[in-house]
C-alpha cells in the first residue's frame, strides 16, 4: 500500500506539474491557448503578416502598372504635369518616413529588452513622423485643389488664372479632424491629471505631441510651398525681362543694315494672337498651344517662300488628332497621382491606428523578450509603407 502511494505520488506530482503548466498556459495573457510555445505563436504571426504584405504588394503593383501604361502612352503629358509637383515637399516626406522606419525598428528592439519607456518613446516618434508626413501632404493637396489640378472630369486648371479666388478653403477641411482630435486629447489629458489617473496621463501625453506634429507638418509645408511659388515668380519675371531686352536689342541693332541676332521661333505677325498663345504655351502640359505656335511658324515660312526641309514639311493631318486635350490628359495624370498617394496616405492612417494601440499596450508593459510579436508585425507593415513611398517619390516627382 505504501509502495502504491509512493508510486502514485510521482504520478500525481507529474500530473500536478502538467496541470500547473496547463493552467499557466490557459491563464497567460500573452500566449494564445492554441499555441504550445511563444516561438510557435511568433512564427505563426510572422507567416500571417508576410502573407498580408504580399497582398499589399499585389494591390500597389496594379497601381504601378497603370502608371507605367499611361506614362508610356503620354510621356509628354506626364513630364509636363510633374512640373506642378513640389520636389522639396516630396523630399521632406521621404526623409520623415525613413526616420520613422528607424524609430520603428528601434522600438522592436526595445520591446525585446523590456525597455518600456523607450518603447513608448519610439512608438510616439514613429507616430509623430506619420503626422508630419500627413501635414505636409495636406499642404500639397490643398494647394493643387485650389489651382484646379484635379482628377479627370474635375480638372479645371487655367494657366492664365492658376489660383481660383472662389475655391473653398480645402486646407481647413483637411485639418479639421486633426484639430478636433487634438482638442479631445488635450481635454482628456486635463481630466486625467485632475483625477490622478497616471495610466491615462502616460498614454495621452505622447498622443498630444503626435497630433500637434500634424500642424508642424502643415507649417513646414506652407513655408516650402510659398518659397517655391516665390522662386517660380522670380524666374518668370527674369524670363519676361530677358525677352523684352532681346526684342529691344533686335529692333535697334544695325546701321542701315538689318542684322538678326537670334531668329525667333515664332512669327512676329499678329502680335495679339501670338502673345496669348505664348502665354498658354508656357504651361508645358498645354501641348495644343505649343502645336499652334509651331503651325503658325510653318505657315509664315511657307508664305515667305522659304524652302522647307523634309522634317519641316507642314503636317496636314487633322488637327483633332494632333492637338492634345489638355484637361483630359492632365486629368489622367492627376487621377493616378491622387489614387497612388491617396491610397498610401490611407495606409499611413491605418498604421497610425495600430501604432496607437501598441502605444497603449507599451504603457501597460505588455511586451517582453518572449512576447514582442505585435510590435514586430506592425514594424514590417510600416517598413512596407515606407518602401512604397520610396518608389512613389521618384516616379511622380523626379522623373519628368
TrEMBL record:
Limits of the Heme-copper oxidase subunit III family profile domain: 46-400
Region Disordered: what ranges? 1-26, 304-325
Subcellular location(s) per record: Membrane
The alphabetized UniProt keywords are: Membrane, Oxidoreductase, Transmembrane, Transmembrane helix
The annotated regions of Basic and acidic residues compositional bias extend over: 9-26, 312-325
Q: What is this protein called?
A: Cytochrome c oxidase subunit 3
Q: Tell me its EC number(s), please.
A: 1.9.3.1
Q: Which organism is it from?
A: Roseimaritima ulvae
